[in-house]
Structures are given as structure tokens and as C-alpha cells.
Design goal:
mainly alpha; Arc Repressor Mutant, subunit A; 2 domains; 6 helices; 6% strand
């Protein structure tokens, strides 16, 4: 305080900060509204919420059979794709959208639990076909009432047309996600090279 001047007791008002305008997180015109991406980001948050809850449902179906979520998906996938001969690992992986190596691992665990069986393919001796055991069939029948109740809740008030639109969207989105993940891997590699260069 300057000598001879009395304090008024008032604090000076803080400097008014300029409003921060966050840059758009997407540049695709269909994803923007009035030049902004608020609706786009809120939809993404909703997707993450919905997909997280869907995964929680899978976990619950697995728990009902003392299985993990992915083990349940492989088991029920086999139930619907085995036909009269059984289903190959490759076909089962394509049906469940899981990696073949992951399906192979889970099939082994389900066989150990007595829920699946496997045998060589008559058409291709290098391949094996898996199918439900009697115990596996009983497990699917036991969990089916819960599946129906949950799915009826999940998709109530959703029309056939709305579901078809979502299906087409997810097909595109799944394909695009491969490119998006490659973009992330490229960014990670670039960042690691930059870090190593900074340490030299």
C-alpha cells in the first residue's frame, strides 16, 4: 500500500476473461448443426451410454450361467449358427463380431465347462466344428426367459423401420471404426517417435 493512502476495503474486480469458443470436433457437414457440433457430441455420449448398458446386459446373461459376457456370446452364437453339423470358428467369429483368436480361446473354455463339443469338419479336415452339448442346450433354454424380458424392454417402442436404420448405420460405423482406429495408431506412433527424439 502506498504510504499516506487509506485502503477502501474494496477488492478490485477480476479482469473479464474472453469467452472460450471450443473448436468443432468434427468437420463433416452432415454432423454439424448451425456450424456447431454440440448435437453431434451429445449423440456420441448417448451412444456410449447405450452401448455400455448393452454390455451390462451381456454381462448379466453371462452371470446367469456362471460365464463371462464374451463366453455367453460365443455360446449363444453357436446355438444359433450350429445347424445340424456344427459351426466353424471362422463362421462363429463372423456371426459374433469377435476376433477368431478370441473365439478359439472362449470355445476351449466352454468345452472345459461341458457346454460345447467339437469335432473335425467332414468337408475340411483342417477345420473343426463346434456345437452345443446337452448341457449347453439346457443352459440356453434356462437363460432364454431372461433374454426375452430384457430384449423386450430394450427394444420396446422401436419400429421395424427404426431398427433397420440403426442396423444400416452400425454396419457403416463398424467399417469406419477400422479407419478411425488406424488413425489413432498412426497418431500414437508419431507421438512415440517424437518422445524418443526428445530424449536423444
Amino acid at each position: 500500500m502506498t504510504p499516506g493512502k487509506k485502503s477502501t476495503g474494496r477488492k478490485s474486480a477480476p479482469a473479464r476473461r474472453r469467452e472460450f469458443v471450443a473448436p468443432a470436433t468434427v468437420t463433416l457437414p452432415p454432423m454439424l448443426q448451425s456450424g456447431g457440433d454440440v448435437a453431434f457430441r451429445e449423440t456420441l455420449y448417448l451412444m456410449v451410454l447405450a452401448f455400455g448398458r448393452l454390455h451390462s446386459c451381456r454381462e448379466a446373461f453371462g452371470r446367469a450361467l456362471a460365464l463371462t459376457a464374451s463366453q455367453f456370446i460365443v455360446l449363444i452364437g453357436a446355438a444359433y449358427r450350429q445347424g445340424s453339423e456344427g459351426v466353424s470358428i471362422r463362421a462363429l467369429a463372423g456371426h459374433t463380431q469377435l476376433a477368431s483368436t478370441h473365439v478359439t480361446t472362449e470355445v476351449g473354455r466352454l468345452i472345459a465347462k461341458g457346454l460345447l463339443t467339437k469335432q473335425p469338419s467332414m468337408r475340411d479336415r483342417r477345420s473343426v466344428l463346434v456345437r452345443l452339448s446337452r448341457k449347453g442346450e439346457a443352459a440356453i433354454r434356462a437363460v432364454n426367459p431372461l433374454l426375452r424380458r430384457v430384449n423386450d424392454r430394450l427394444f420396446q417402442n422401436v419400429s421395424r423401420e427404426e431398427f433397420a436404420v440403426v442396423s444400416r448405420f452400425l454396419e457403416k460405423f463398424a467399417r469406419n471404426s477400422e479407419d478411425a482406429l488406424e488413425e489413432i495408431r498412426h497418431s500414437d506412433r508419431k507421438r512415440m517417435r517424437s518422445l524418443r527424439a526428445g530424449q536423444d
